[in-house]
Amino acid sequence: MSGPLTGIKVLDLTAALSGPVATQWLGDMGADVIKIEPPEGDSIRAMGPARNPGMGAMFLHANRSKRSLVLDLKIPEARAVVLRLAKTADVLITNTRPKALARLGLSYGELKSVNPALVYVSIVGYGSGGPDADKPAYDDLIQAAAGIPSLHGPNDPPRYAPIAIADRVTGICAANAVLGALFHRSRSGEGQMVEVPMLETIASLVLSDHMAGLTFEPALGPAIFQRYVSIRRPFPTRDGSICLMVLTDKQWRSLFRTMGHEDAMEDPRFSTMANRTQNLESLYALVADILEKRGTDEWVALFEAADIPVARLETMDSLMSSAHLSSSGFFESIHHPSEGTIREMKPASTWSLTQPRVTRPTPRLGQHSRDILEEAGYTPKEIEAMFKSGATKE
Fold it and tell me: What is the CATH code for 9-205+349-389?
């Protein structure tokens, strides 16, 4: 079986995280992803523990299913390589600021002139219509600009979400944009440019939950969904913590019955979803008081038997031995040619015909430079001249 994007060539002019996340999705779907890196390599090659320089854990998990080509784009011969590759590419994706690409002669207009059918996806920090369009952007900055650090309890200091959520969500959205643009091209023959701004992407994520009363004009109340901000956290038990998500009247009735407090649903504050929403702090305080009286294992057994949505609170260590993830085949130990045995995560979706998979191990810096240049039609003499000039390396 082959992936759904087999035969699609992607030029990957991205670094750090948002762009590499996007192109890894495309590579797992079978696309031939050519990762174009500067001579010093992607900036995240050194992040996290590593067995060898430039092959850190974070890089390994964002750059599989790709080939690495080193090009020093400050050298004209290297920029010419990008233009030659673009003639036969289907997609170019970048998260370099547009003005910097224009200075290099790699703007959408210039790429379109060599390949009108090219899908050109530009990940930017801030949308081109606003005053911040030229500002640099990183995950922390975009989290801040979208208000994520402020979404904590009133007595908690502002803090970032402890994962690179802005980079990773934007990367997924960029991969989705590629798929939509390719589908349009399959029907029309037309390539196009797509801009995927991080701030607008993450602001829509945040505000979909928290615009609340400001959704309406005039406003029906303030912003912020209070359950998420004030009281959405695991419940302490006698010996640990437990996580519940109870929503419908039926679920709440079953929960209180299982906890031995069925009469709680007779309280007008808790009898309907609308009333519970207005009395969340009192509701959760009651639940917390009850849950502290028994241990986690006992509660989990009771709630699972009653079909009440419940989960244990995992840590990063315990997640690695999750019975469900292990049984579902999520983890896979693979042999990397230079890094030895590493633990990989398979693509999470399951397809009946064109299953995405890891198509290549994460590449070493410049590992495929010579091969890709040969495929592009460069002669051995031309390739050696580029190695000598520093335009490329392996």
Answer: 3.40.50.10540
